């Protein structure tokens, strides 16, 4: 007997695999990764968006038009269609998990791991390259960095690579100094 958590995990895996295959056939894996990752973080950060996309009382056409409005000129049409597919299947609540698994699968094909980095500000190319190199050295793995702008991070960054969290925030450093005193 399978549990609902196992069924959900199976759906997440199946959709992530399907999205990877579609993106691969269209030769757009990296661009779709970026689009889906950004949309997943927007969905995660916005309660009104989450409610709108998961409200079964709202007609599907309206939910899909919300996606169209948000992604218009900001995402590939392919990415928008893939987001639509997940929402139309009634899996808007699982979108973040599906997108994250898709990014992991795509990175694994390139023999990389994904680091989700939270920063208060957008990182420039030089900062991103230095951070990627530092995380690769620290973990002894090839790392791909995905940046999430998070205003609650006052300074520095927090990186999550699988189950490993590296906290280089000002808040964390202050807490360490306080503990030492």
List keywords for this structure.
181 residues; 4 strands; four-stranded mixed sheet; alpha+beta; 13% strand; single chain
Question: How would you describe this structure to a colleague?
Answer:
With 181 residues, the protein is an alpha+beta fold. It is 62% helix and 13% strand. The chain has eight helices and four strands, in the order ααααααβαβββα. The protein has a four-stranded mixed beta sheet, sandwiched between helices. Strand 1 (113-119), helix 7 (125-139) and strand 2 (143-149) form a beta-alpha-beta unit. Helix 2 crosses helix 5, helix 2 packs antiparallel against helix 6 and helix 4 packs antiparallel against helix 5.
Task: Compile the SSE list and pairings.
Elements: H1 4-25, H2 29-45, H3 47-54, H4 60-71, H5 77-88, H6 95-109, E1 113-119, H7 125-139, E2 143-149, E3 157-161, E4 164-167, H8 170-180
Helix pairs in contact: 1-6, 2-5, 2-6, 3-4, 4-5
Concise structural overview:
This protein is an alpha+beta fold. The chain is about 60% helix and about 15% strand.
Query: In percent, how much strand structure appears in the residues?
Result: 5-15%
Looking at the structure, what is the overall shape? globular
Q: Figure out the total of helices.
A: 8
User: Helices and strands, in N-to-C order?
Assistant: HHHHHHEHEEEH
Q: Got a strand count?
A: 4
Structural Rg: 18 Å
Major sheet attributes: 4 strands, mixed
Derived structural class: alpha+beta
Q: Give the distance, in angstroms, between the N- and C-terminal Cα atoms.
A: 54 Å
Q: Mean pLDDT, rounded to whole units? A: 87
